Amino acid sequence: MTATTAGPARPGRDRHAVLLPPRPGATRVGGPRSTAVVGGGIAGLAAATALAERGVHVTLYEREAYLGGRVGGWSTELHDGSTATMSRGFHAFFRQYYNLRSLLGRAGSRPGRLTALPDYPLRHRDGLHDSFRRVPRTPPLSALGFVALSPSFRWRDLARMNPAAALPLLDVRVPHVYAELDSVSAHDFLESLRFPPAARHLAFEVFSRSFFADPQDLSAAEMVLMFHIYFLGSSEGLLFDVPDDPFPTALWDPLAQHLCRHGVDLRTSTSVENVSPTADGAFTVSTAREESRYDTVVLALDTAGLRTVVGRSPRLGDEAWRERVARLRTAPPFLVSRLWLDRPVHAGRPGFLGTAGYGSLDNVSVLERWEGEAARRFARTGGSVVELHGYALPENADPDAEAQDLIAQLRAVYPETREARILDARHEWRQDCPLFPVGGYGDRPGVRTPQPGLVLAGDLVRTDLPAALMERAATTGFLAANALLESWAVRGHPLWTVPNGSRTRLLRALSAGRSPSGRGGVRAGSAT
Question: Which terminal residue of the chain, N or C, has fewer Cβ atoms less than 10 Å from its own Cβ?
Fold first, then answer.
C-alpha cells in the first residue's frame, strides 16, 4: 500500500491522518473462494469481515463460546440469582483507533455504541494528580500542555532533564524507531530522560504497563511509538470512548449479525487442532470433530495459540518461520477483579482512574458510570460495580493473595469502600498477552508468511505502521484479508493511520540533530 492524504472522508478530527488505499482490482471475487479464519478476536473478526464483504466464503473458528478474544465477555450468575456479564476488564477505545472503529461501525450507524468518558485521570499515591481533559489535542501543544498543566513537572525538575535523550520522541517513524530503540528497555530509556520520578510513573509507566509488561522487559521502541500515537503524532488526543454496555451486547453481537448476513459460518466453542497444506495449494483445517478444506487460511491467534497450532502443523511455512513463531513469548500474568458492592463509591469518583504507587494496582473502574448493565444494577440495588486491574504480576504469585492485595489498595484509593460489603466478586488471572521484549521486533513474524495462501493477524504480528494494542489487531486483520484479496486480483479495503513521522518542520529539525547513527545516546542496560 502507498500512503496518501486524499480519498475517503477522514475518520476523525486529525487532518493529517494518513489514508492507505488498497490496490486496484475487482469489487468481488470472481468465483467460489473460501477462507478459514482461526481465532475470533479483533484480528480474526476484521479479517473475516473484510473477506466476506468481498464475496469470500468464510468460516471462522473460535475456541471460546464467545467472540471478541481478549475483549470478549460471558455471562455469570451472581449470588442473588441475577446474571451479569464478566470480561477480562476495561479497554479504552482511543479515537486514533481508526481501523478498529471502522470495523465496529460495520454493524450500525455509530462505531459499536461507544460513549466518551469526560477525562483520563491519573493519581499517584504521593498525592499528585494528572488529567488529560484540559490538555490541547494538537501536537506539539499536546505534549507541551501536559507538561505545563501537570503538577508532577516542576521547573527545577525540568532543568535536570536530558533533552538530547528525548530527541527520539520528536520524529517517530516505523520501522526506524525499532532500529533505533528496540535494543533498549522502556525503563532505561525513561532513566535516560531524567524525568522527575512522579512524572515518569504517571506520564509513561502507566502507558507502558498497559502492554502488560514491566518497563524493564518492554522494548523502548514500543513505548516511544505509543507516545507518538497519543501525544506528538496525532491530534485526536488522549481522551477515549468506552462501550455503553458489555462487550458482547455493544460490540460483538451486532458484528456477528453483520457477518452472518454476509454468509460467514461462525463456529464458536471449536478449537483448531492443526492446519495442513494440500498438494494442490489449498489447506485442510482439522478440529476434534472434522476436517474441512479451504483455499486460504488466516491464523489470528494469541501467542500460545499460534505456537500450538503451528507446532502441530509441521508442514506449514519453512523452518526459519516456524522457529520465529516458536520463540514468541507471552507477557507476565495480570489480574482483573470485579466487585459488586452493597453501597456506592462517592459520586465524584471517575469512571476510570489510572494509578501509580499503589502496589500492584494499575487502575480502578466504576462501571455504572458508563456501562448500561452496571448502571441498571446500581439503580436497582444502590451498590457500585468496581473493577481493579493489576498488570505484570510475578508468574509465581498466589492469585488469591494478589486479589486481596488489589482490594486492599482499592480501599486506600477510595477510602469509602472500607465500609462496603463485597456482595459478589470475580477474579480473572490470565497470561496470554504478547510480550514485546527488548530486541524482539526483528524476530516477530509479519502478516505474510512463506506459505502461499497463509497469512497471520493479531497484535503480536509485526507491521510497519504506527499502531498499537487493539488497533494493531484490527489493522493486521484487514492487512491479512487484503493480502489474500490481492492474490485474487480483488480490491482490498482502505486503511487509515496516524502520521508516520513528525507533523512539524521544527520537530523534524530538532530530531535531525541527533548523532549520525540516529541513536539518542541511550544504550541497552545503561541510563546516561
Answer: C
Cα gap 35→295, rounded to integer Å: 6
d(CA 273, CA 387): 35
Residues 450 and 464: their CA atoms lie apart, in Å, by 18
Task: Provide the grid cell at 78.
Answer: 451472581
Using only C-alpha atoms, the chain has a radius of gyration, in whole angstroms, of 23
Centroid of chain to Cα 324: 22
- Of 43, 87, 78, 93, which Cα lies nearest the Cα of 430? 87
Query: What is the pTM assigned to this prediction?
Result: 0.92
**Alpha-carbon separation of residue 55 from 261, 447, 485 (angstroms):** 11, 21, 10
DSSP string, 423-455: EEEEEEEE--SBP-BTT-GGGS-BSB-SSTTEE
Question: Following DSSP, what letter does each residue of 8-75 receive, concatenated?
Answer: SPPSSS-TT-EEEPPPP-BSS-SS--EEEEE--SHHHHHHHHHHHTTT-EEEEE-SSSSSSGGG-EEE
pLDDT digits (tens, 9 = 90+) for 178-214: 999 999 998 899 889 887 776 666 666 666 667 788 8
Distance CA 99, CA 473 (A): 9
Helix (H) or strand (E) holding 260: helix 253-261
pLDDT the model gives residue 178:
96
